[in-house]
Design brief:
The protein is 61% helix and 4% strand. It is mainly α. Helix 3 packs antiparallel against helix 4. The radius of gyration is 22 Å and the shape is globular. About 2% of the residues have low confidence.
Amino acid sequence: MKQRYYSLDVFRGATVAFMIMVNNPGSWNSIFAPLGHAAWHGCTPTDLVFPFFLFAVGNAMAFVMPKLQEAGDAVFWKKVIKRTVLIFLIGLFIMWWPFVKWEANELVFRHWVDPNDPEKGIRILGVLQRIALAYFFASIMAYFLKPKNIIWVSAGILFAYWGLCYFLGTGDPYSLEGWFGNAIDKQIIGVAHMYKGEGVPFEPEGLASTLPAIVQVVFGYLTGLFIRNQGQVDWLWSKVPQAKEPHFKLLAGLFVTGFILLILGWTWSLGFPINKKIWTSSYVLYTVGLGILTIGTMIWYIEVQGVRNWVTKFFDVFGKNPLFIYVLSAVLIRFVGLFRIPNGVNADGIQQYTTAFSWYYNNVCSALPGPPELGSLFYAITYMLLMWSVGYVLDKKGIYVKV
């Protein structure tokens, strides 16, 4: 029986916790630089959250896939298709929720396409939708291909994406204006259903950039497979005297591989910049390298050193119900936003309103001494702790929501 690594649960939980924090600041105008995304090229700690989550999805696949392979094709397709569709629909649900909005002091339905503006509508793609698509294609690769072949196919995908960006792009092919994927998203998804946060229609979880994101999950799977087999790669370590020591192969393999991928990603970035928003191939290697090093460190700390303390227990709560807690964090704020609280009148005598969470930020968090970023961070931390408390209750009751 293969050993279960508690550190992988902690890694997944820490990723979810940080994702909730960076997605829910008190004010988007007041955040510390590390808690914001890079403007375009580059990578901040926040830019590691999503690829780490995809990487964790791949880790989990390594422990499930052998069972699916034993069960056969019919079970595999049923399981993977069902999970893909459910995760995608949950992501779409988040985008549409809560289906109504306040407009001219009345609640109106949020139309699929705004009848007054054909370029406004419900966004189709997003975080969970990308997870669903990347999981689907990574599962197919993991099920039908051997690990060595998976590596070759993954390398081919990353190089192919580089070529598509370079040859199909216009002007600066790695810029917002020149990236080829935007035209594909406009044609297939439609401007009304794309993200507008960059000031123009641009989908950071678009169809073209999902291609290298598949490799992110695949690398997570290969890493999980290596961990599951406790580092048994004889052709690499058989001549090393220390190889018989507990965890030597595992930790050595993780740290060496992580370091190599980190350097390869940085080197590739000299010609193909590290960029989350178009999910460049160099970004994949760079973040996978950091992910492997992080997991290696956690395995050394938690499994080898035997550390179990309040920190590991804290993040483990998120790791037990990661999807449910993430979805709850997204829908709760919008739901509470439907219940308006009178908040005085403006200069024209028009009634103003606030919400419970906005009141908490404006009257408690922003009143803290120090720069406004501190109050915004305090709000994000307390909201994350609120989600943790829900996860803690579920864990105590033995309730684990899975799809």
